[in-house]
Amino acid sequence: xxxxxxxxxxxxxxxxxxxxxxxxxxxxxxxxxxxxxxxxxxxxxxxxxxxxxxxxxxxxxxxxxxxxxxxxxxxxxxxxxxxxxxxxxxxxxxxxxxxxxxxxxxxxxxxxxxxxxxxxxxxxxxxxxxxxxxxxxxxxxxxxxxxxxxxxxxxxxxxxxxxxxxxxxxxxxxxxxxxxxxxxxxxxxxxxxxxxxxxxxxxxxxxxxxxxxxxxxxxxxxxxxxxxxxxxxxxxxxxxxxxxxxxxxxxxxxxxxxxxxxxxxxxxxxxxxxxxxxxxxxxxxxxxxxxxxxxxxxxxxxxxxxxxxxxxxxxxxxxxxxxxxxxxxxxxxxxxxxxxxxxxxxxxxxxxxxxxxxxxxxxxxxxxxxxxxxxxxxxxxxxxxxxxxxxxxxxxxxxxxxxx
Length: 404
Fold this sequence. Notes:
This protein has two helices and 32 strands. It has 404 residues and is mainly beta. The chain has one domain: Neuraminidase, CATH 2.120.10.30. The chain starts with a helix and ends with a strand.
């Protein structure tokens, strides 16, 4: 149903095309977008309490993006190639946090600071598993607990011991940092949960990339183009709940089967445990809250709080309050190429669950033929109710507004 809604929307909406900087893009309906700032290899985003946008780049840089009298400016906060920072960024209680593949660091930081950080990094979390999926997403809850997401080592690992979200109490950090392996397992069985965000009720959600190269003879052979689904999950289950990887996968489009059905990954079907029936049992495997289109590569998620929806020019409308917005980085393991877009996923205000719709906001018009495609990574709302989006392929930050 979600895929059908997406297709129907594309047929029904008016489309406006823009060319800014290096990436071409379309927006839909009343959305307007423009290239807001240029930041090399922009990936992770965090909006500090003063309204400055902090950007983590894949080239071990952190940049502040801000406005002075209506003019957008940037300042380099940190550049240290020895640390190999690549994606994760967060702030809590006077410290700025960032991560490499193996280590999470922090520095004393004052929101609104625009001068370069020269103090040495303090190690917060050490000995995270190296190799494989390299991003280490960082996020804090309201109690000051730090969540760290680590993806799989291979396309399909032998177990889930690596592919998890761990949670850390960092109120006391020993000299040299906290051993990663001692972190509490918050959620288990998550292949590559890059995007994490808390909703307005303080519940953590995430978006996950499904595995590649799926082939099951009994289900049609090579079904990798439209399976398995990427996943969007609300973490409202008991601590340490198992969400399927590597033993189970979720359907996106599969002949004679419903969207979101659970099956066993081929390499585990004959191990005596992980059958299709095992995967369909929610006591063993918790399915996603919403299956997402296969191989769209969901990397970012945020929620609209609607706090300025009636008072700020260009703010998204109040009717979208509580909705999720997701960045799809784009596929490599399907033909034709797909993803390369920012979408809105409406959340029912009564159930606090997705309605099933996936509605385009901004997208790459020609994924197969673009030079440097629009490849969104992360997204966050600023204090004006505008959506800011990082795009690493074109080294841009985009701003999306809404024309009432």
